[in-house]
Amino acid sequence: MAFTPMMKQYLQIKQNYQDAILFFRLGDFYEMFFDDALTASRELEITLTGREAGEAGRVPMCGVPYHAAGTYISRLTAKGFKVAVCDQIEEAGSGRGIVRREVTRVVTPGTVLEGLEDKRHNFLLAVAGADKEFGLAAADVTTGLLLATQLTGEKAAAMLLDEVARLEPAEVLLAGGNNGDKLAAAVQSRLRTAITTCDAAVFLPDGAGRMLDKHFGPAWAQRFGLHNRPLAVRAAGGLLAYLNRTQKNDLRQFGRIQVYSAGQYMMLDTAARRNLELTASLRDGSRWGTLLWVLDHTLTAMGGRLLKTWIERPLLVAAEINERLDAVAELAGDVFLRDALRRALNGVHDMERLAARVVYGTANARDLLALKGSLAALPAIKSLLAGGRAALFKRMCDEMDEMTDLYRLLQTALNEDPPVSVREGGLIRDGYHSEVDSLRMASRDGKKWLAGLEAAEKERTGIRSLKVGFNKVFGYYLEVTRANLELVPADYIRKQTLANVERFITPELKKLEETILGAEDRLVQLEYRLFTEIREQVAGQVRRIQRTAGAVACVDALYSLAEAAVKGNYVRPQVDDCDRLVVREGRHPVIEQVLARGEFVPNDVRLDDRERLIILTGPNMAGKSTYMRQVALLVLMAQAGSFIPAAQAQIGVVDRIFTRVGASDDLAAGQSTFMVEMSECQTIVSSATRRSLVIMDEVGRGTSTYDGISIARALVEYLVCRVGAKTLFSTHYHELTDLDCLPGVRNYTVKVQEQGEEVVFLRRVLPGRADRSYGIQVARLAGLPAGIVERAREILLALECRRESAENTAVVLETPDAARDGGVRDVPVTAGAVLTELASLNALDITPLEALNFIVRWHEMLTRGDENAVRECRADF
C-alpha cells in the first residue's frame, strides 16, 4: 500500500518505538496517527480527526500545540505511557524533499520533566541481583540526584521493598527473566508504579562498568565509594544505560553518585511509615494530617524535597543530630535572623530543576531569568550564614558559590520580559550584541519609516482614511476605501481587492518591506542562536549550581524546622547515646494542630532499664493509640534534627522504630487482616534490637479470644526476655496486666471518669491497670440503636456472671532463672481452662453425643498437661 512521503517517514520512525506514543512534529503541532491517535485522544480527551495518507485513505489523527506538549506528555506518563518525541532536525525549506525528523527523547514515567509536584522527587529506580543480594540505584532526572546502595543478608529482599516504598519511584527498571518477574510482582504489591523490563545484559558487570567509565571518567569507584559494592555498580550502570538510550543527551546533571548504606540512617519499614503517617495520610494519601504537613514551612521546592528526605531517613549518630539541632536552636532563638533568612529565601526558585532543564536544552529565557533571580539572593543568604555560630551554617556557607560571573552574564544578556517561545525574538537585551542592536534598530526605524510614509501618502493623495497594513500572505500594503479610489495616484499597484477596500503597494513600500522583514527574520534567528549559546554556557556550570542549590536546600530545611519549633512551642530534646527515653508533657505534633489551642492533653513517658515495656490498658477511644504514635513521632522528630512538642525530653538514639497498629488486609497478596498482623509481628521480633522502639496496638484481636490472649502474652514475654527493645504494648486483654511480674514490665492505663452511665475520657496516662474497656458505652456514643446497646448490656452481664463462677485461667510464667537465661519454658494446659469452658456451656442446649465429645476432648487436654493439673480437675469435680 502506497503512503504519502510524510506518512512513510512517520511509519519508519514509529517502527523503532512500538511501545511508545509517537509525538510527530508537523509545524506548530505534535501529531499522532493510527492507534496512537486513538489512544491519545481517549486519554487526553482531545478531538480525534483524520488525515489523508495516500492509498490508505484517511487515517486517525490528533495533535497538541508544540508549546504545550510538556503538559500533555506529563498526563500520558502519569498514566503509565511512554512518549517518543520526534522533532524536525532541520529548518523547513533548507533542503530538498521532506524535512528530516528524528526522535530526540523518549519520555517515560521516571524521566518526565514537567507537570511534577515541586516538593517531591520523581525517581527512576533500577534493581540488580536476587535472593539475598541486591543493588539499587535511583535517579531524578529533574534534579540530577543519583543514589546507590547495596543490600545483603537474610532480610535483603524485605529491606529492598521497604526502600522502594520509601522512594516512591515513578518507574522501576528490572532485568528480564524469572527473578525480574518475581520482583516486579513484589514491588507492585507494595505500590502502584510503572515496571520496565530491560535486557539483562545492561546489568552485567562489564557493561555497567563501561557505562560508568564513560560517564564519570576513571577512578569513579574509589571516588564514590563503590569499589566494594558490585551490585550497586550493576544497578547504577544499568540505570545510566537506560537513560542514555531514552534521553539522548549527555546527562550532565548527574555529576556524582551518592552512595549510602542501611547503617547510616534509621530504616523505617513500610508499616512504620504508613502507621505513623509521616508523609502521606492513611485517609486519602495527601500531605494533610501528616508529620510533613506540620513541619514543612520551607520556602523553596529544593528545601521541601530535602525536608521530606530528613523525615523519612532520621539520623543515627548523636553528633550529627546535635549539629542539626544546634542550627535549629540558633534560628529559633533569633527572630531577626529568621526573618532576614525568610526574605532572602523567598527570592530563590527551584535551582536544581532549572539546571536540569538547561542541560536538556528545554529551558526558555524565563527559566534563565528565574535562575538569575535565585543567584541574586545568594549574597544575602551567604552573609547571614557567615554571621551564624552553628557549625552547619559555616559548612553550608563554604558550599555556597555566589556565581557572580553567571549572574552578570544573565543580567547583561537577557531581556527582563522575554516571550515564552525562544523562537519569537525579544530575548536579548540591548547593548549585549552589536548585530542584534543594528538589526533591531533597522526594524524599529523601518516601522518609523512606515508611519512617516502613511502620513506622507495621506498628504499627497488627500485620502484621510488611507492606512498602512500588514499580513503574512501579502506583506505590507496601502489600504484605500472604495469611496476614495478616484484619488489613487497612478504609481499605486493594485495588490488585493476586498469587499469595501482595495489594497495597493508602491516601489518605495516594497523596498521598506524588504528592509523591515529581512531585519526581523535575521534578528529572530540571531537572537535564538545567541540564546542557545548563553544556555550552553549556563549548562557548563551545572555542578556549581547544584552544589549551591544543595546548600540552600539545607538552610531552607533548617529554617522550616525552626519555624515549626517557634509556631508549635517545641523544645530542644537532649539526644545522646544513653539507653533511655524520657519525655515530660509530650504532645502529638499533628493532633494538637487540628484541635483547639490548649485542648490536647500532654502525657509523660519513661522507658529505661527499670521500665522497659509498658502494658497500656484503658477504654476504647481513650487515646492509647494516639499516645503510642506520639512517642514514636517524638523520637523520629528528634533524630531528624527537629525540636519536639514537649516540656522536656532525653532521647537515647534509637536504631529503628517498629509499629503494629490498626487492622488492614492485603487482598492482592492473599493475606487476611490477621495474617498481615502476624507478618508485622514476625518482622518486629526478628529485626528489633535492644536499641529499637516498638509500639504494638491490640495484638491478637483478629482471632479467637484465647488464641489472641495466648499470642499477645507470648509476644510480650519474648520482647522482654529475648529482644529487650523499648516497647509500648496496648491491649484490651486485661489478663495481660499480671505480666508486670516480669522484669522491666510496668502497667499504665488511660484514666476515665464515670458519671452514672456516662464516661468522660481524661486522656491522662498514669501508672495502673484497667479492668474494663467501656466498649458498650462507646457503642452508644457512636449512635448504635438503643435496642442493640441494651441487649449488649444483658449479654455482658450474663458472661461476667459465668466468668465469676469459673476459675481464672492459670498460665505458667517462666521462672526468674529462665528469664535471666532468656529462655521461655513450655506452658502446660491446666484445669482452669477446662473449667472455664465448662462454665460457659448450657447443658440443656447440647445433645448427648456433643456432651460425650466435650468430655473426650477435655480428657485429652488434661492428660497432655501435668499430673497436678489432672488431680486438680478431679478434685474440683
UniProtKB/TrEMBL annotation:
InterPro entries linked to this entry: DNA_mismatch_repair_MutS (IPR005748), DNA_mismatch_repair_MutS-lik_N (IPR007695), DNA_mismatch_repair_MutS/MSH (IPR017261), DNA_mismatch_repair_MutS_C (IPR000432), DNA_mismatch_repair_MutS_clamp (IPR007861), DNA_mismatch_repair_MutS_core (IPR007696), DNA_mismatch_repair_MutS_N (IPR016151), DNA_mismatch_repair_MutS_sf (IPR036187)
One Pfam family assigned to this protein is: MutS_III
What does the record list as coiled-coil region(s)? none
Domain DNA mismatch repair proteins mutS family: where? 692-708
Q: What GO CC terms are in its UniProt record? A: cytosol
Kindly list the residue ranges recorded as spanning the membrane. none
Tell whether Oxidoreductase is among the UniProt keywords.
Answer: no
GO BP terms: namely: mismatch repair
Name the CDD domains for this protein: ABC_MutS1
Question: Which molecular-function annotations from GO does this UniProt entry contain?
Answer: ATP binding; ATP-dependent DNA damage sensor activity; damaged DNA binding; mismatched DNA binding
- Asked if the Swiss-Prot or TrEMBL record annotates the protein with the keyword Cell inner membrane, the reply is no
Positions annotated to bind ATP? G618, P619, N620, M621, A622, G623, K624, S625
State the family it belongs to: Belongs to the DNA mismatch repair MutS family.
* Function description: This protein is involved in the repair of mismatches in DNA. It is possible that it carries out the mismatch recognition step. This protein has a weak ATPase activity.
Under the heading PANTHER family, the entry gives:
DNA MISMATCH REPAIR PROTEIN MSH1, MITOCHONDRIAL, DNA MISMATCH REPAIR PROTEIN MUTS FAMILY MEMBER
This chain's protein is named DNA mismatch repair protein MutS
